[in-house]
Amino acid sequence: MKKLIFILWLLAIAGTLHAGPFAAKAGLSRASLVSGYADKPLTGFQFSVSYEAPLSRAFSLVPELAFVRRGSAGALPDFGTNIANRVTLDCLEAPLLLRWRVGKKTAAVRPFLYAGGYAAYALAMKSEIESPGQTWAEDITTDSRRLDFGLLAGVGIEFPLLGRTFICEGRLHKGLNRLNRINYYQDWKTASLTLLLGMRL
């Protein structure tokens, strides 16, 4: 059922796409996974393409398709031990955002704000556990939920350079779905702060 929901979400986003102003973006993130616990942030990344469908002079709908790495560099509390657990989630993500451009349409440099939601499907889920004198990795797909969904918000700026329009934006993401099937002391819910650089194509 959850896979069906994800497919329908992708189809809804694909239905808004047609030939027009696409943009490509890439960036790095500080990601966390354990809800309610200060786990060690993981340096993640994101590659994405988006399309902008204008709704008015200031507002537009922005569907996006992205490949992202999320997780945690220390997902489980050690409780006085020397055990460290690094969890990585490689996901195909489909955000749908409402963007508001601030200022005049004719301005060369335009800031913008946006907010929306996303659905993501984990293509790979891996846990790397380190203890004194021992390191091992395992696939945790069967112990986890692949489907994630949540909220996104961000702020950015567009500016001309070398005859093209470039984009710089900061994005905050918060997952709402509990990903761990096994009961730990904390729920696994994704979160990240991402810096993206991009260009209109």
In short:
By secondary structure, the protein is mostly beta strands.
Provide the descriptors you would attach to this structure in a database record.
201 residues; eight-stranded antiparallel β-barrel; Porin; single chain; 1 helix; elongated; mainly beta
Strand composition percent: over 45%
Strand order of the largest sheet: 1-2-4-5-6-8-9-10
- Mean pLDDT across residues: 84
Specify the overall morphology.
Answer: elongated
- The CATH topology, please? Porin
Number of structural domains: 1
CATH class value: Mainly Beta
Question: Which residues form runs of ≥5 with pLDDT under 50?
Answer: none
Number of helices, counting only DSSP H or I runs of 4 residues or more: 1
User: How does the helix and strand content classify structurally?
Assistant: mainly beta
What does the model show?
The chain is mainly beta and 201 residues long. 6% of the residues lie in helices and 62% in strands. The chain has an eight-stranded antiparallel β-barrel. The two termini are 36 Å apart. The mean pLDDT is 84.
